[in-house]
UniProtKB/TrEMBL annotation:
Residues at the active site: 253
Keyword presence, Oxidoreductase: yes
Organism: Nocardioides pini
Keywords: Oxidoreductase
Pfam families: Aldedh
Record flagged with keyword Oxidoreductase: yes
Xref: InterPro entries: Ald_DH/histidinol_DH (IPR016161), Ald_DH_C (IPR016163), Ald_DH_CS_GLU (IPR029510), Ald_DH_N (IPR016162), Aldehyde_DH_dom (IPR015590)
Domain named Aldehyde dehydrogenase: residues: 28-472
SUPFAM superfamilies found in the cross-reference section: ALDH-like
Protein name: Aldehyde dehydrogenase family protein
Family that this chain belongs to: Belongs to the aldehyde dehydrogenase family.
Length: 480
């Protein structure tokens, strides 16, 4: 192993305030509820005290969004709305380093990911949907916005999930009330400042912070026309029940348990990089993470030995260090969940191997881990661990690979590694997954729709398809 001198990114660029209010009607207000702390998961340092929005606050936010919708935003031409979205996109680029550093501090993800993946895709999303704002008549989904969108997002990609929600909603002429996750509110609040800087009309974007109760209050508010949720399947089901019988339009982006399938003709070194990227990117806190490796039996030993060698070089530690590959687990609760499922994996008879690495004394950490000898019946093969833990299964034939890959309640994504184009196409047709990557993994682009089958949810985000969720489809023959 090589020794590296630390190369930490300075945090001087971010100005974290001791306390934050709610962003309602274009201003930061105190709110009527209590408050909660947000913590740096790499150090356990308390970063700030953040307002917990009550039902009354949520109601204020929805009213502000309704006023802005009726009086300003829905009346504005698409070309005018686009100017605001382009402005927001440019400010995100200008303040990219600040956003990346803050995201890494509040979330625990490595700076090289927040800087080179999250923030650039966030800006790209706003640019992309800015382009649609004056072209909705070509969308195929009509041009009529829905009204007020209530949006609830998770902690794994705080800013990116915000962009996936807010950019298409605004482009289509809706206004929004968005709640970030309770462990990662800070970049959403910085985004609120960016909305002020962009002179976005008050009430078009409202950010309310809080936990599950605040989320419940948003999705059940009678004046919310559209609910957009990204998070766990369990909460997604609760939301589906809560809105059943109302005329709210709903999209749910939920959990996953993706199969990353490696055939014996695949370029193995590249496949190993893809496996590492698939499961250790963002500490494995990725809904579409390649958490089940299906490797063809004839190359299984070779792949495992190359994979372990590669895993031993992963640098785990300070998220702000530019050398870091794997950062901190986002919260003590998530760490406990990963530990519990890993212990179950061992007790069920799978063989555990963790990369040798020194973990920092403070903060929440979990060494990159792989389980071999996993069978379909094991809980680690069925449940979403949402951490840097890979389960390895083997297969002999393409049909067996398809059967094992599809043997899951989820259906968000899959990866196929092979030299044969025809095999890629036939696998993609047979895999029940919203996204199938071929000889790559975890690639995201604003032009490409993303979403799941089965318990991974319904609706698509990204691309032209992502507009459907925010428009009242008045095209001939469509459901109104
Ligand atoms: P979570 O479901 O616990 O929380 C998500 C959000 O919902 C948070 O903001 C939370 O405060 C809020 N919430 C909790 N209870 C609620 C309720 N009853 N009503 C309304 N809102 C409520 O999920 P998490 O642990 O934050 O995120 C991890 C999960 O998100 C994983 O399962 C992951 O697969 C999924 N995810 C999916 C996608 C996707 O695009 N499919 C993307 C990212 C994450």
């Amino acid at each position: 192993m090589f020794e590296y001198a630390p190369a930490p990114e300075s945090r001087a660029i971010v100005d974290i305030k001791p306390s934050y209010g709610l962003f309602i009607n274009g201003e930061f207000v105190d709110g009527n509820g209590t408050s909660f702390k947000t913590v740096n998961p790499a150090t356990e340092e308390v970063l700030a005290e953040v307002a917990e929005a009550s039902d009354v606050d949520v109601d204020e936010a929805v009213k502000a969004a309704r006023r802005a919708y009726t009086r300003v935003w829905s009346r504005m031409s698409g070309a005018e709305r686009a100017k605001y979205l382009y402005r927001i996109a440019r400010i995100i680029q200008e303040r990219g380093r600040e956003l990346a550093v803050l995201e890494s501090i509040d979330n625990g993800k490595p700076i090289k990911e927040s800087r080179d993946v999250d923030v650039p895709i966030v800006a790209a999303h706003f640019f992309y949907y800015a382009g649609w704002a004056d072209k909705l008549k070509y969308s195929g989904y009509g041009e009529t916005p829905l009204g007020v969108a209530g949006q609830v997002i998770p902690w794994n990609f705080p800013l990116l999930m915000l962009a996936w929600k807010i950019a298409p909603a605004l482009a289509c002429g809706n206004t929004v009330v968005l709640k970030p996750a309770e462990t990662t509110p800070l970049t959403a609040l910085l985004f609120a400042e960016i909305c002020q800087q962009a002179d976005l009309p008050p009430g078009v974007v409202n950010i309310v912070t809080g936990a599950g109760d605040t989320g419940r209050s948003i999705v059940s508010h009678p004046d919310v026309d559209k609910v957009a949720f990204t998070g766990s399947t369990e909460v997604g089901k609760a939301i589906a029940r809560a809105v059943a019988g109302s005329d709210k339009k709903v999209t749910l982006e939920l959990g996953g348990k993706a199969a990353n399938i490696v055939f014996d003709d695949a370029p193995l070194d590249q496949a190993v990089e893809g496996i590492v990227n698939g499961i250790f990117f963002n500490q494995g806190h990725v809904c579409c993470a390649g958490s089940r490796l299906l490797v063809q039996e004839s190359v299984a030993d070779e792949v495992m030995s190359r994979l372990k060698r590669r895993m031993a070089t992963l640098r785990v530690g300070d998220p702000l260090d530019k050398n870091t590959d794997v950062g901190a687990i986002n919260s003590a609760e998530q760490l406990a969940k990963i530990r519990e499922l890993s212990a179950i994996g061992e007790s069920e008879g799978a063989e555990r191997w963790s990369a040798p690495c020194d973990l920092p004394a403070n903060g929440y950490w979990f060494a990159p881990t792989v389980f071999t000898g996993v069978s379909q019946a094991h809980r680690i093969a069925r449940e979403e661990i949402f951490g840097p833990v890979l389960s390895v299964l083997t297969f002999r034939t393409p049909s067996e690979a398809v059967e094992k890959a599809n043997n899951t309640p989820f259906g968000l994504s899959a990866g196929v590694w092979t030299d044969k184009g025809s095999r890629i196409l036939s696998m993609a047709n047979r895999l029940r997954a919203g996204v199938v990557w071929a000889n790559t993994f975890n690639k995201f682009d604003p032009t490409s729709p993303f979403g799941g089958y089965k318990e991974s949810g319904y609706g698509r985000e990204g691309g032209r398809h992502g507009l459907e969720a925010y428009l009242r489809n008045t095209e001939k023959g469509a459901d109104a």
